Amino acid sequence: MRYAVSVATPPAVEPITLVEAKLHLRVDIDDDDDLITALIQGAREWAENYTRRSFVLRSLELRMDSFPAEILLPRGPVQSVTAVKYTDSAGSLQTVSTDLYQTDLYGTPPRIVLVSGATWPTPKLGAVNAVLVQYTAGYPEPETSPQGMADNVPAAVKAAIKILVGYWYENREAAAQVPMAVKALLAPFEIRDLRLEA
Predict the structure, then answer these.
(1) What is the 3-class SS of 95-130, one letter each residue?
(2) Residue 143: how many CA atoms within 13 Å on its side-chain side?
(3) N or C end of the chain: which has fewer CB within 10 A?
(4) What is the mean pLDDT of residues 112-135?
């Protein structure tokens, strides 16, 4: 089934801070702060695309032309489903009652399924992107953490991002290349589910 995922609200933080990156790089001047900050974001985005995951919290929107039997949620881990909506026959956006479906946020990939005996509403015939699912994805924010949501990102992911930032910082014309150590650290986090191949 064709689908599209877009970021509705981008991450508020990165998995590693500028201070952590500079410590890893052994850089103690401020001249390259903007460059290093950009490299952190670029490395996080590369790692997320490689693993097909979201590492820090953001709001996502999944769009489909119609309701499948079960809705698979890409770019997990998923923390919550905000709403399931659809375009009705009059062209208006309607919210599906939460009484009609249940969420499985523990599986890989997370999913939304109908409760027993329920059926999905019928979206407007021929409408493109008639189904909209809004949800929050990324590693959760620890309740006691002063740093916030980046603290629950696995250490191996943070290490991979630091290595990638370091490699790109030292090899500025080789941004398309990625050290094997980065891929090895990220391998356990890869989601390779053919049902999510759009």
Answers:
(1) ECCHHHEEEECCCCCCEEEECCCCCCCCCCCCCCCC
(2) 0
(3) C
(4) 95
131, β-bridge pairs: 64, 86
| Model pTM score | 0.88
Q: 57: buried, middle or exposed (CB in 10 Å: 19+, 13-18, 0-12)?
A: buried
DSSP notation for 7-26: EEE--SS-SS-HHHHHHHHT
For tokens 């949620």, name the residue: 73
Q: How far apart are the first and last CA of the chain?
A: 7
CA 159/CA 20 separation, integer angstroms: 11
Residues 6 or more apart whose Cβ sits within 8 Å of residue 129: 4, 63, 64, 65
Per-residue pLDDT of 15-74, as tens digits, reads: 999 999 999 999 999 999 999 999 999 999 999 999 999 999 999 999 999 999 999 999
Pick from 165, 9, 133: nearest CA to 65? 133
